[in-house]
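for the writeup, i need someone to sanity check this before i put it in the appendix. the sequnce is what the collaborator sent (i think, or maybe the updated version? ugh). structure was predicted straight from it, no edits. if anything looks off just tell me and ill rerun, i have time this weekend
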Amino acid sequence: MKIFSLFLLCATTAWFISNLSESYTANTYFNLEYINVPDSLFFADNYKEEVQVKLNAGGFQLMRLNVFRKKIQVDLSQLENKREKYFLRQSVFRKQIEGQLPNSLSLTEVGVLDTLFLDLYKLHTKEVPVVANSKVELKQNYVIEGGLKITPDTIKISGPKAEIDSIVKIEAEAYDFENIAANFEAEVALQLPQELSNTKFSANRVVLSGEVYRFSEKILTVSVDVINLPEGVEIRTFPNKVSILCKAKVDVLREVKPSDFSVIADFKDYVDENLPILKLKLAKKPQGVYGVKLKEDTVEFILNRQ
């Protein structure tokens, strides 16, 4: 029985090898790799990644192709377009496949219809602002110079027009800064719409930062200017000067002068003849001053007609 089994195994192996040495026509699959894709187009998620072909080849080759799939490069430089449908004619597609096969393989049939249609979208791009979803809690007498910074403050989104038209902003994940008394920085993820499967975003994270400094206060006395007075009328305000409270860095406050500010009262805003009072407005303040508060917001007045 052992000798018989050995001869049977040898005979079976010889028969198997003999048959694999012959040529056959059979179906197999090639993986597709797309090259030279136009910059204005991109693939949808369900694009074609394989193609069925019928080949004439030796048995060993067919067996190897079924185990280790061959990769075929599809050159899209000859892509055609009709009514936003993108395709390669089968004659072009077949020629590309044949050009990548060894002489021992003969392509008999390509498992597509007359045309290879591709799930491509025309690329539309726009920029949208990034919105922070953060609170900054500062220690007493500290401020942020220039406010909270977002880097980048805008991102590019690319995709089908129908998907990106509705996007007007991208929000960052919630992130709060507490008890801040120095410069700060944190990397935060963006809330990207997951349902837009064909849309690409230039960034998925941003950096939130701020420059923090300790401020001082200074009180200045500034003259009140009345504007839009009628012709032939003089006015006298009580008081004719008001105090303002400034907040800024110490070195900035050291250089600040009353003439750097302008406090006005607009006579056009005077509506009640029985109540001679004008509202005050801050019309000018120097750069670098964080906050300015008028200690008085109204003045009384007397009119003199010439």
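Confidence is low (pLDDT under 50) at residues 13-21. The helical segments are 2-20, 59-67, 90-98, 161-164, 250-255.
thx in advance!!
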